Each structure stands twice: as C-alpha cells, then as structure tokens.
Fold these 2 entries.
Entry 1:
Amino acid sequence: MSHSRYLAAAVAVGVLWSTNLRSQPAADLLLVGGLVYDGSGEAPRRQDVGVTGERISFVGDAAAAGLDAPEVVDVDGLLVTPGFIDMHSHAELTEDHGRDALPFLHQGITTVAIGVDGAGTPDVAELFAGLAGRIGVNTLAYVGHGEIRRRVIGEVDRAPTAAELDRMRALVAQAMNEGAFGLSTGLFYVPGYYATTEEVIELARVAAAFDGIYDTHDRDLGASYRGVGYLNSIREAIRIGEASGARVIFSHFNAQGASNYGRAPEGARLIEEARARGVEVAAAQHVYTATQSSLAAYTIPRWASNGGREDMLERFRDPETVRRLDVETLEMLAIRGGADKLLFADPRPELNGRTLAAVAAGWELPVPATVRRILTAGNAAVMNLDLYDIENTRYLARQPWMMTCTDGRPPSPTQNITHPRVFGAFTRKLRRFVLDERILTMPFAIRSMTGLAADFLRLDDRGYLRVGAVADIAVFDRDRIRDRATYESPRQAAEGTVHVLVNGRFAIRNGDATRALAGRPIHRTTRTADNAPGP
Ligand SMILES: [Zn+2]
C-alpha cells in the first residue's frame, strides 16, 4: 500500500482504526512516507519514523507494523534526516538575540559546537547551568586554550612558568570534568599565538586523558603575516594530536589567500598521511569564500598586541612605532587582497556594510591610520572577501573526513550586515554542491552534517536516524532547498526546511519556528572524571 493510500485509509476507518490497534505498539508522533537518509551515507529508503518522548522509537513501515500515533505528519516525498551538527559555531546562546538559534534551526541544525577558536570558558558547569531550558538547539562546548592562557598569564608574549602551566592544566581538567568535549585553540589569535607547540601539547594531553578532542583554528591557514605557512600549520596541529593522544579536528578547514588557490590537495594529503599512520584527524568546512574575524587580527602584527589592549593603544601613540605599523598593516592587508576586500560586519553604523577602503576614503585618512582609529574605539568584526578559492573548497568537500560547520555568529539586532554563513552554510552546501553542481551525492553531504560528526564526537545517540537515538530530526523539501542570505542582505532564513525536531519537540513546523526552546547542553559522557586516567 502506498503511504498516501495508507493515510487515506487511516482517516477513513477513524475510530475503528485506533480501537483495533489499542494493543499495538504506539508512538507519540509518526512522520509518514518520507525518504529517510539515516546519516550513514547509505542510499535513502522510503520509511516512516516514529517518535516516543524524546527518542526515535520506530523506523520502517508503520502500516505493516500496525503502528499508531495520536499525531501523524505526512512527509510524503520529503527528505527526512538526522538533525544537523554544526562543528564550529559562534551561536551566542548566552545572548538574548542568540538563544532561540533560529538561523541555525532553519538550516536543519539541531546541535552546535561552541567554545571554539580558543575562546571557550573553562567554567563549563556554570555555562551549561545558564543554558539549560533556555536554548533552541543542543550545544556542546570546548574549553579554550586562549581563554585559559589569558586568565593565567594575560595577553603577554612569553612562556608560562611551571606553576602557571600547572594552573592551565588544572583548568582544562576542570572543564573536562564538567562536560567539555575537548580543548580548542586559536593559535592565529592573541594570546594563543604566543604559545609554543609544546605548551599546547601539554594541555591537549589533559583533554586526551578524558578521551577529549583537539579542535584547532590553525596558527596559519595561509594568510598569516610572517606566519609558519599553510602546510607547516597543518603539520603543527597533527603533531599536537599525535603527541598528546587527542583526536584532531581542523576548524573551518581551507587554504587562505590567493597564493594558496589550488593548494588544498597538499593540505589534504597531510591529513591523509596522518590518518594512514593511525592518527584520528578530521576537518569541518563551510562553502563560502569569505571569512569573518576581527580587524585587529587581520591588520595588527602580533608584536603590537603584546601585553593587551592598553599596551597596543599606547604603541599607537608612539611616532616611531606608528611608522612601523604603517608599513606592516599594509603588508598584512596585501596578503588578504587589500583594504577593499575587508567588509565590516560590525554593529557600529559608521562601519557596518562598508569596506575598510571606503571608510578610509570617507575619513580622508590613510588605511593604516584608519585601522588604528577604529581599533582605538574598539576591535571591529570584519569579513575578508575572496580569501578562499572555491576550487579548493570543492576539493575538500569531497574528502571522507570533511564535516560541515557554519562558523556563524548571529548578528545583534542593530547589525544589518554580517557573514551570511550563519543563515545559510549548511543549506548552501546542499544547494550548490549537491543539487546544482552535483559534485557530492546527497547521502554523502548529509553524512558530513550528521553521522560523521557524531562518530567523531563519540555521540552515541545523535547524528543517526535509528531506533533509540534522540529525536533530533530534520525534514526538507528537496526542490526548495536554498540559502537566501547574501553578503549584501544576510538576514534571510534558509528555505526548504519543512520540519525540525529537537529532542522530540517541533522547533520548526511547516517552515515556521515554534519558538520552543527544546535544546539542551550535551555533556561529554564517553569517559567520566572517575574513570579517566590522570594527566
Ligand atoms: Zn576560527
């Protein structure tokens, strides 16, 4: 019997139907007639999905099994997938404008990884207590090396003393005990930049003792000023994983800068070689060609940030230092494609939506002086257009270890221009790489957003659509899948996402947000503090 006929029959028999099946297995909710992609990468199958409470209780032919439910939703012809996992997110879940996570839910994302780029708090229990019951998506957290270093030794360019390193280790252990999934770094940023590889290995060892992950924002993705270079940066992260025993994920993995266009296969080869040696190494990507970060990170050499913000501003007032900065800021910008490739995504209206070149022209100031004037009032959020090569991105998308991330930060209410990835990254990968260009199959792309991530995270009850798993489920209309957010007009939700369930509750229903705050913090449970070996 076809599913539409089954539905019609169910309606026709009415009361008799439910009476007859009172003794049969029941679910709270049945999604009937969808094309189920289970997260394994296997071909889809036409199946019904039953949800009981917060768990998936049935996958199969509901009519044949005599399964009834008080709520039956016809998803005939629609794609049914596990909820997507965003492996690198700046979801702002502690902010009023970020709590409901709507930009993510509208892409089918039900879980986000936060605390990335070295910025995650070690006070994970406190963070999670503040999020419980108040968030639209599930979240897992990393503890950040940069945040720990800042707390213990400040933003200073020096090595920690033995006692300081012990305190840093203790903060990693605290975070892991409180449920963190691992250690993140932002070695491109201050203060992570000031750390040696050995320092990071020492801290990653603590995370590894809890079966934790090493999540890296590399020291140099290819566009760092006087950096170690694209390939050496990849080698460093792999070495940290290999020496510490932590499995490694490269955040927003790609090769930055025009000099690295076409070079993704070289980076991928290093990862393949490490995997062949038995090191568990993986990566996540979005498929935009612009990045978003901070103006200081893109235009101020790290020596000039040594000591923190006040020290930097003092250097801005010293004529001799300013002459050096005038040269070096322009050299840094040249690597990034120039001042007209930096587009502000900052809430300040005099910056938002303008390029650095346009702001400098408007102020009738040289670009380096413009940078310093902006930074004197505060660091600014800025995109770097065309930093990634789309051919590199396509190549990386096809790798079996490539997951998906937004790297997205929901904009504050007054912020018109922001990176569109927060609204469209997952949908764009499906639209462009699967449906339009056909360089990925749908099962492969969906796996990169679900099962592959869950396996890496050791989440044993999410990321797959199977009986017993938590009911994080997304339902899509294949033909309508489309990202609408652009650089010019980013505040546009993705299309084609029909239903989203988070922990068994509808977060999106018939394309509309229910505003149910059904998400929850996810604690790492693979190994507890009690049975973890000491660092
Ligand atoms: Zn990052």
Entry 2:
Amino acid sequence: MPGTPNPLSEMGNLEGVVVSKDERPNTSFNKSALPGFKKAVRGRRAIRIFDGVPIPEDVMRDCLRDAVLAPSASNLQCYEIYWVRDEGKKRRLAELCLGQPGATTAGDLVVIVSRVDLWQSHLEKMTDIMTGKGKNPLEGPVRDYYENIVPMLMRTDRWGFHNLKRRLMFWYRSKSEPTVNGPVKRADHRVYGHVQATLAAENLMLSLAAHGYESCPMGGIDKRGIGILLGLPSTAEVTMVVGAGAGTPEGLFSPRARLPFCDLVKEV
Ligand SMILES: Cc1cc2nc3c(=O)[nH]c(=O)nc-3n(C[C@H](O)[C@H](O)[C@H](O)COP(=O)(O)O)c2cc1C
C-alpha cells in the first residue's frame, strides 16, 4: 500500500536469514558471476535424449539446494520437490510422462509440486525460523503482515466465505487506493502455487546447466497419476517433471527459436 513501509524490507536484520552484504550482487559481480550466468542461461536447452546415467549425488544435492533459493510470495515456499530415486518409481514416473524420451532416458527425474495447501504449516514454520522459535517475536508491520495479512490472503473455507470477504474488501479498497486484488478464489490460489513451484524449477534447471548437465521440463504428463505415485494428497498439484542428466547430441531436437524480442518485451 502506498505510504506503508514494506514489511518484508524490514526483515533485513534477521540473523541467518539474509545473506551478508558481500554475498549480494555488487559491481564486482559482473566480472565474476556474469560470464558464468550467461553461459548457464544461454546454454540451457530442453534436451529430449540423455545418456541415462544418474547425475552424481553431490551435484544433484547442490542443484536442489539452489532450487529452494528461488524467491516465493511472502517467502512461504508453497512447493515440494521430489527427487525420484527409487528405480521402480522412476520407471513408472517415466511411463506417466507418457513415455517421453526426456523422461525415459533421463539420469534423474525430479517432480515439482505446488503445495499451496501447506501455506499454514509453512507460515508457522517460517515464523518459528524468523523469531528463533519465539525468542525474538516479530514486531510492527512484519508482525501484522504474517499474523494478519498473509492469513487474510490465503485462508479458504468450504462455503467460500473468505473468498467473498476478500472480493468485497479488495473491491472496496480499490475505490480509493491502489490495492492488491488477488488471490481471491481457488483458481487464484492454484496459480499462486504453480508460480512458486515454477520459479524453483527454473533455478534447478539453471543450476544443472551451471554444473554442466542438461534438463527437460515436462508438462505434457499424467499429473494425477504422478500424484498417486508419490502418495500426494488431492490438494497437492504436480507442476512439472524435470528430466536431467548428460544430454546426447541427438537430444537437441531443433535450433533455439524465440519470437521477436519486441513481441515479448515492451518498453513503455
Ligand atoms: C511448463 C513447460 C512444459 C513443457 N513440457 C514439455 C513436454 O512435455 N515435453 C517436452 O519435450 N518439452 C516440454 N517443454 C519444453 C519446451 O518445449 C521448451 O522449453 C521450448 O520448446 C523452448 O526450448 P528451449 O527450452 O530449448 O529453449 C516444456 C516447457 C515448459 C516450460
């Protein structure tokens, strides 16, 4: 809201949560980080045929740690990442990816799942982390944000009472000032969850590229079947599967193609 301090910007002094100044991008970054970053971003392609050899465990773990560094709304991290290691499950998962070669030949398969249904437990866990298990209680706007605003945005009930409350509140506020206008309904919460999950997936794929491995995001998959395979509740939603490994030369099906830059990026 205009004039109100951004509560999240007040979290800068949280020990252990925020990186030190030296670790944050600065002018020396473009010498050290930029060339590698460009290589990873520009080198990442959707690869459909891998050599089938699993990626070394330490590399996978490192990439998964990078994945969870992705930003998320209110830092609620409403997703889960399933690194499928069991051979039987991996075979079944590849079938549920409709037998796509990006899955059947992958050394590793990772399922990215939207878990917006876990918002409340993640909020409680994050509050514990931010407050050192209640030793340093949140104060001021940060406290208001996590205790009132986040639950107001996320809470749902069977009868749609909270949805209606949000819709009316946003409508009323928007008459006098710029205001957020979502999430309101279940569809908005679903989008919210897939957004967070997708950002984590992109971090994973870029980290794989930086480690010299390739990947294939797959959305043309049997998401319901995968949910059953992983024992997910019906409130969880599979976002995508990422096949990963060492790509073969034939695994790159076509040259990179993009729409004209001006169709995608607008200067206004
Ligand atoms: C959400 C999503 C779903 C995708 N689903 C599939 C898929 O099911 N099978 C596949 O081979 N590629 C899939 N892709 C890969 C895209 O086809 C690919 O990223 C696009 O053609 C651009 O190519 P590039 O990634 O090599 O630049 C998917 C990508 C995304 C982001």
